[in-house]
Structures are given as C-alpha cells and as structure tokens.
Amino acid sequence: MSDDFPHAGKTSGETPPGSAVEERHGLSPAMWGALAVLTAVLVVMYWGTGKQLEDVWTLVDSYYTHGFLVPFVSLYFVWRNRKAFFEAPQAPSAWGFVWIVAASLLLLVGSFLGFRVLGQFSIAVTLTGVSLALFGVKRTRAIWFPLAFLLFMVPIPPSLTQSISLHTKIIATQCAVWLANLMFLPMVREGSYIHFGQDKLLVGEVCGGLRSMIALLALGAIMAYISQTRTWSRVLLLLLSIPVAILSNVFRIFLLCLVGYVWGSSVAGGRFHDISGVLIYVVAFLMFFAIDAQFRRFFAVRPSVSEDAASASPPPRPGTVARHFAVALGLLLATTAANESIAHAQAKSVRDMKTRKALDIPSRIAGYEQFGTDAAIEKHVRDLLETSDILIRNYGSRMGMVQLTIVYAGTTRRSLHFPEVCLVGAGWEIREQTSTDVGLMFTARRLVLVKGNHREAVLYWFKTGDTLTGNYFLNAWYWVKDQASFGSSTSAMIKVATPVGPAGEEAAFELLEDFSMKFAPILLERVP
Predict the structure, then answer these.
(1) What is the rounded CA–CA span in Å between residue 253 and residue 277?
(2) 150: pLDDT confidence band, cut at 50, 70 and 90?
(3) Lower CB density within 10 Å: C or N end of the chain?
(4) How far is residue 399's CA from residue 87's CA, in Å, rounded to a whole number?
C-alpha cells in the first residue's frame, strides 16, 4: 500500500480532489480496500449489538419493525449525495478520532452496565468518526443526513415506550370518542375500553399510536430533508410528524369505533382492524404532502449559486489518509477486544452463579405458604434473559394468592429489564403504571394489567446489594457506585402479582404490599 490512498483517476498532481475524473470514478482501489477492512472490524465489533437490534425489531408487536429498512434508506441517501460528497475536498480531520473514542466509550459502558441503547446509539457515532478521520468535515457534512438517520433504528428504552404508549393511547382514544359524540354516536371511554350499547372495543398497545408515531417521525425526517423549503419550515415539518401521527391514529380509532358501532366489535377487531393499520399511513402521507405543498408555495427556498471551493482546495498531504486509517483501525480493534473481554467476563460470571445459594427462598413466608411446584423455565427464556437463576413460585394465605418471580442477574445486570416488555409481549394490556411506597421500606412500580376479562395487580422492584427500589435507573446508579468502589454486589428483579378479584384493585394491592413487606427481610438475607 502506498503512503496515501489516491483518488481514482488521479494520475498526476494536476488532478485535484473534486475533479470531474474523481467524481466520475469515485474512490481508488486502495481506499476501497481500507474501507473494506474497517467494515469487517465494525461488523465484528457490533455483531452482538446487531443481534440485540434484530431481537427488538422481530418482537411480536414491536414498535421498530421498520428498523430493517433504516440502513438501506441511509445507503440510498449516501448514493444520492455522492456528487456533493466527491465535489467536497478531502481533508482528513483528527476530530474523527474524538468521535471514535466517544463511540467506543458508549459501547463499552453500555456493555458493562447493561444499557444496550448506548451501544446501539454508538453505531452512528462511530461511522461519523470514521468519515471525519478519512474524508474530513466537508465530505462528512455532505452525508450528515444518512448518518443521523441511522438513529431511527435505535429502539427507545422500554421504560419510555411503555409510558409514552399509555399516554398516546389515552389521548387518541379520548379524542376518537369525543369525535364520535360530536356525530351523536353514544360512546364512553373507560380506561382502554370504548363502550357503545351492550358492546365494547378494546384499544390495545398496537392501536396506541406509538408505533406509527416512531415510523412517521422517520418519514417526517425524510420529508423535511428533501423538502425544497426554508430551514425553519423543514424543522417545523419534522416536528409536525408527532401531531400528524396522533391525528392519523385518532382517525383510525374513530373508524374502528364507527365500524364496531354499526357491525359489532368482532368485525371492527377483525380484518378491518388490519386494513385500518395501513390506512393510518395513507392518511399520514396525504397530510405530509398537503403541508409540504403549502410550505413550498409560500416558503420555497431560493436557488443559490455556490462557489466550487473544492477545486481550489489542496489535496491531503501525502501519508495523511494512511496514518488516519491506521489510527482509526487501531482504535476500533482495541474497542472490539475490550468489548469481547467484557462479554466473556460477564458470560463467565453467569456460568459461575450458584443458583441454589442465590435463590434459596423458603416455602413459608410468615402467613404465606407455597402451593404447587416452582414453574419450569423454558430454555429460550433463560437464553433471552442470559441467566439460569429464575424463580417463579406461588404462595397462598387466607388473604389470597401471590405469585413471586425473581430474576437473579448476579454481578452482570445483563438479565435485568423492565417487566412491562414481557408482560405486553404475553398479551397483557397495561392499564395503570405508577410508583408506590411499600410501607416505609422501599418504593415499587405498580401496574394494573388487563387481558380480556382478567385483571391482575403487579408490584415490582429491583435489588442491588442491600438497596431496594422500583426505579430502574436509580438501581443502575447504585450498581455503578458499587462497581466503582470495587464492590461485589449483585442485582435482581423481584415481581409479585395477584388476580384482581371482586374486592377490587385496592384489596389486591394491599395483599401484595403485605406479602412484599414480609418477604423483604428474607430477600435481603437469602439473595446476596
């Protein structure tokens, strides 16, 4: 390999970067080879992160089923902007190393703490750093949108999606009922249910509007980018994606209500439900085009003649690109090795966990007696949670039945996540989601779940060392502080649940709080 990576068609010093020859032929074979090497390293470096993204994208009722399309859309815009990219001067920037180091820290911290979103977010940061290091600021600026667009494939943390989904669903459902009442259709909303006559319609998580909002935000970003209007109007077009998504979803729920009112909820929840899922995007497209048409009419951008600064810019000094390639490659290889070391250490920690010692929970807890045997955990569930230490056990007393679930993460925290994800995946509808105090001992998350005619009350919290809290992020902070002081505290997620009977929700939660307060001392003693 020569000291530098020459541009294709650059046969002499008389052919500067940005020339017609370079624009036509693109990168030299040497540069393509360098990019191929970096790509191979990046594939290894982000292999685990890619599998995590795939798992989220392929979940039942995932909010990110469009995630597979995002990289291809980004590649299209890179190809679309190739002329501007090659017309810009190639001036490798050392700032690229700063971006690569920042991305490496995000990946390693995310892997170490179990915050996978950090590693997923770092993909776009890493690619930006590589582009800056090899091609410079001006060329990277030419492809800023496809790089930034990659962020739309990164899932929002479940703690946020569940909360946002619940609020958007309530807003959309209430607006749809209000619209129906304006048309003199007698309908009443009760939680996630819409009642009309002797019939009712359940507005599920899929109809909540969050999935379409996330997808339409990505669409709004594309529309704003290609819009031939002023900058402020393009930003406004992007921001309008949220109300467009909400209004489209209100229209969908209203149609479902109308069909349910005329032909019954079985018809509304059948084939028409699937058709309306496509209709929401048709309505959104029409609204986007109508808004953009008005913006182009009144706020069209004036064509400007830009100076071709590339022809006057000197080519990179000999050896600069090669040196930047070597440094970038070294940083990526070091990050890959460190990330693999963290993964192997955590896997070893999981293998070394002693299940019996960790989850040696007595069969009798105060007035609660175990009945039945512990639930068998399927292998794919253990693999998904990356732990074999899972306890699901039923306890009973004169007050009622409580199901205790413990997911023991050991020292890795990789097994811990928000139970809402699994509950929604199992078909439960989250009707209420708040925080509550369990006596004077600790806080917990309080959930009310609905599935058909069944209701269930749930409390869950996390444990790190001797600290109990229902706040996932606060628990993570406790764990980080312990690790920073070279402690060896382990983490666990504890969930208690009971059916809501004729006595109502408050009676169910009184039962759960009573069991939780009696179980907490045993938890601190038996779960290290």
Answers:
(1) 10
(2) very high
(3) N
(4) 76
User: Virtual CA dihedral for 135, 141, 142, 145, nearest 10 degrees?
Assistant: 120
Helices 320-352 and 116-135 pack at an angle, to 10 degrees, of: 170
Cα 364 → chain centroid: 40
Give the Cα-Cα-Cα angle 330, 335, 337 (nearest 5 degrees): 95
The Cα–Cα gap between 8 and 29 comes to: 7
Of 324, 315, 321, the C-alpha closest to 2 is: 321
Query: Which letter does DSSP use for residue 136 in this model?
Result: B
CA distance 200 to 187: 9
Structure tokens at 358: 């960790």
- Token pair, residue 367, equals 């007035």
Which own/partner pairs from 348-351 qualify as long-range (CB within 8 Å, at least 24 positions apart)? 349/410, 349/411, 349/412, 350/386, 350/387, 350/388, 350/410, 350/412, 350/414
> What would the pLDDT profile of 411-458 be if each residue is shown by its tens digit?
555 556 677 767 765 667 788 889 999 987 889 999 999 887 889 999
Q: For helices 210-226 and 158-182, what crossing angle results, to 10°?
A: 90
Helices (H), 459-504: 472-484
Long-range contacts at 344-351 (CB < 8 A, ≥ 24 apart) = 346/111, 346/412, 346/414, 349/410, 349/411, 349/412, 350/386, 350/387, 350/388, 350/410, 350/412, 350/414
Q: For the chain, how many residues are written?
A: 528
Pair of tokens at residue 233: 């109007």
187, two tokens: 């309908």
